[in-house]
Design a protein that fits this description.
- The complex is a heterodimer.
- Chain A is an all-alpha fold.
- Chain A is 79% helix and 0% strand.
- The longest helix of chain A has 30 residues.
- In chain A, 48% of the residues are buried.
- By secondary structure, chain B is an all-alpha fold.
- Chain B starts with a helix and ends with a helix.
- Classes of the chains: A mainly alpha, B mainly alpha.
- At the A-B interface, α4 and α6 of A face α1 of B.
């Protein structure tokens, strides 16, 4: 080992380990998990509810750390990710791997012992799904990577729900479907204006392999499926008018923005105003949809 | 390592150790809380 790598590898601060957990992704995970937990029928001791959310957050963080351990080579060549702790040399790869595995096992074990084994099994499966099925098998192999990867991000509200009820009914499956269908338009909008970065890193994102026209059509198609599915909980009578009205309004804007993306013909990132707008709105969309779900449950029942 | 480098190294190691210590204390409180809740 050279003096250079010795000195840089040991320069990690606690913040670098925290960064391995992808805290910004974690906020959405914590939020949707909390919403699933609150919206579920039944009662959970508030402290155990807190433990469940903590385990989901740490499990998701561990999956993010496993992802960064495996992808350090891709991260090193993309501008957006080159300063992450592993490619920047602040944390040695084997340390990151040990950290990630310890957190994975710890979060699943505590979830099982404190809350329930169905929630723990779902958490374990979601970590496996993100770290192995998505990161290792699909991300570099197929332009459908995002579609399947979206399933990993769709687990948190289901786990939150299972922590309360101990079972899975149609409603948490619908919450899963909403995030699953939301992910492709969200990520492909980002991939459209970040295409140069992904292309450089050799990740077969849809805009890289099939071009912007196909990608924009797919964005619109998924949006057109997402909106009716997001209204299904209301149509089936699982939730009330607060959720129904909010989601209908949000869905109309989502489709409007997706049509603007589908009609855009820009090929340089600077002209992709519609894509940026859809990407930003898609985040707001998911936050407000789940907030409406909680408001509906707290106010109407 | 130069003196500046070793100073940085010690400062960051200290911050890591402090953070790990806090995490361990938090885990003790977590297990204590779970025990109390599950027993009642």
């Amino acid at each position: 080992m050279t003096t250079q790598s010795l000195s840089t590898v040991h320069y990690a601060e606690w913040r670098d380990y925290f960064a391995l957990l992808k805290p910004r992704v974690m906020t959405l995970v914590v939020f949707t998990a909390l919403c699933g937990l609150i919206a579920a029928p039944g009662h959970i001791n508030p402290f155990l509810g807190f433990v469940a959310i903590l385990c989901i957050a740490v499990g998701a963080g561990a999956a993010g750390a496993l992802n960064q351990w495996y992808e350090a080579d891709i991260d090193a060549v993309m501008k957006r990710t080159a300063d992450r702790p592993i490619p920047a040399g602040r944390i040695a790869p084997h340390e990151a791997l040990a950290f990630a595995l310890a957190l994975s096992l710890g979060s699943v074990a505590i979830m099982g012992l404190a809350v329930g084994w169905l929630a723990a099994a779902l958490l374990a499966f979601s970590i496996f799904f993100y770290a192995v099925v998505y990161t290792v098998w699909l991300k570099r192999a197929t332009p459908q990577n995002i579609v399947i990867g979206g399933a990993a991000g769709a687990f948190p509200p289901v786990i939150g729900w299972a922590a309360v009820t101990g079972d899975i009914t149609l409603m948490p499956v619908l919450l899963f479907a909403i995030i699953f269908l939301w992910t492709p338009p969200h990520f492909w909008a980002l991939a459209l204006f970040m295409e140069a970065d992904y292309s450089k890193a050799g990740v077969p994102m849809l805009p890289v392999t099939h071009g912007p026209t196909v990608t924009r059509r797919q964005v619109l198609l998924y949006s057109l499926v997402l909106v009716p599915v997001s209204l299904a909980p209301w149509a089936l009578g699982y939730v009330g008018w607060i959720y129904g009205a909010t989601t209908a309004g949000l869905g109309a804007i989502f489709i409007f923005d997706a049509i603007a993306v589908a009609r855009n013909v820009a090929t340089v990132a600077a002209d992709m105003v519609a894509e940026r707008r859809l990407f930003k709105f898609s985040l707001l969309y998911l936050f407000l949809l789940f907030a409406a779900l909680v408001a509906d449950r707290l106010i109407l029942s | 390592m130069t003196p500046e480098e070793s100073e940085l190294f010690y400062a960051r190691r200290k911050s890591r150790n402090l953070a790990l210590g806090l995490v361990l204390v938090a885990l003790v409180l977590l297990f204590f809380g779970i025990t109390v809740v599950r027993m009642t």
